[in-house]
Amino acid sequence: MSKVALITGATRGIGKQIAITLAKEGYNIALNYRKENDDLKNTKQEIEKENVKCFAVCADVSNFEDCEKMVKDVIEEYGQIDVLVNNAGITKDTLIMRMKKEDFNDVLNVNLVGTFNVTKNVIPYMMKARFRKNY
């Protein structure tokens, strides 16, 4: 049975490279994205070149219900999640005196709350799998 990695924010940058690296190691990939675009299609194609499965799942990590659905969709697709990479993150680079409160809240909601939301929803499945010894 192949291992499964769920990577948030995985369509470009560091997340994309992590997904490709894990695919090269034989992991099936659950690729989280927020908006469908060319990066998503290209990343999915690169992963599938490694002869592993790639399941793209849309979710806004700052939304708890989106994360709950995302994790359930991955479990439905693969039956397990062995590795979670909380990679999704945003920046609003500016001086704090110029930053709007809404921008600061957006950064916190994706980078901090998003990590909680995804982890909270994945933990029950990873705990159940903890006793599987087929690695």
- In round numbers, the mean pLDDT is 93
Radius of gyration over alpha carbons? 15 Å
Task: Give the CATH class.
Answer: Alpha Beta
Beta-strand percent range: 5-15%
- Uncertain runs are none
User: Which structural class matches the secondary elements?
Assistant: alpha/beta
**Helix count, DSSP H or I runs of 4 or more residues:** 4
Compute the number of structural domains: 1
The H-level CATH homologous superfamily, spelled out, is NAD(P)-binding Rossmann-like Domain
Helicity level, as a percent range? 40-55%
Largest sheet, order of strands side by side?
A: 3-2-1-4
Structure description:
There is one protein chain. The chain is α/β, with parallel strands linked by helices and 135 residues long. The chain has one domain (4-88, 115-129): NAD(P)-binding Rossmann-like Domain (Rossmann fold). 50% of the residues lie in helices and 13% in strands. The protein has helices at 13-24, 38-48, 64-78, 101-129, and strands at residues 4-7, 28-33, 54-58, 83-85. Helix 3 (64-78) packs parallel to helix 4.
Q: What is the topological layout?
A:
Elements: E1 4-7, H1 13-24, E2 28-33, H2 38-48, E3 54-58, H3 64-78, E4 83-85, H4 101-129
Helix pairs in contact: 1-2, 3-4
List the defining traits of the structure above:
135 residues; alpha/beta; Rossmann fold; 4 helices; 4 strands; 50% helix; globular
Quick synopsis:
50% of the residues lie in helices and 13% in strands.
